[in-house]
Design a protein that fits this description.
Blueprint: E1 2-8, E2 11-20, H1 28-38, E3 43-54, H2 56-71, E4 75-79, H3 83-91, E5 100-101, H4 104-112
Parallel strand pairs: 2-3, 3-4, 4-5
Antiparallel strand pairs: 1-2
Length: 113
């Protein structure tokens, strides 16, 4: 799994590539989100367009990151999860917890609204 962070205005965009699963960089996502929150970011967009797989451990990391963001008054949103990831989020009833966007422009505009 590769994770990179880029910043657009006051939004931190976390780009994922690969799998978010047990044994593949355990607790990396909460650590990255925690660092962004500690740096003062209140708008975090997780770009899942290149994430091809997520398991229960990865789902736990997503929920943990969402809860940490909410506790600190931040907004964490998802960008273009692949069909397989969306299906997993839907099957586990986690999809309604997240704001999900199809384009980066749409997501950035929604943060400003």
């Amino acid at each position: 799994m590769n994770i990179s962070v880029r910043k657009t205005k006051d939004v931190a965009i976390v780009d994922f590539e690969g799998r978010l699963a047990a044994g593949v960089g355990d607790a990396v996502l909460p650590a990255v989100v925690g660092e962004l929150l500690d740096s003062g970011f209140k708008k975090i967009l997780l770009n899942l367009s290149d994430m091809d797989y997520i398991d229960s451990n990865g789902l736990g990391e997503l929920v943990q990151s969402l809860k940490a963001s909410t506790r600190q008054g931040a907004s964490l949103r998802l960008l273009k999860p692949q069909d397989r990831v969306t299906k997993t989020l839907r099957l586990t009833n986690l999809l309604p917890m997240f704001s999900v966007y199809e384009t980066e422009h749409e997501a950035l505009s929604a943060f400003d609204a």
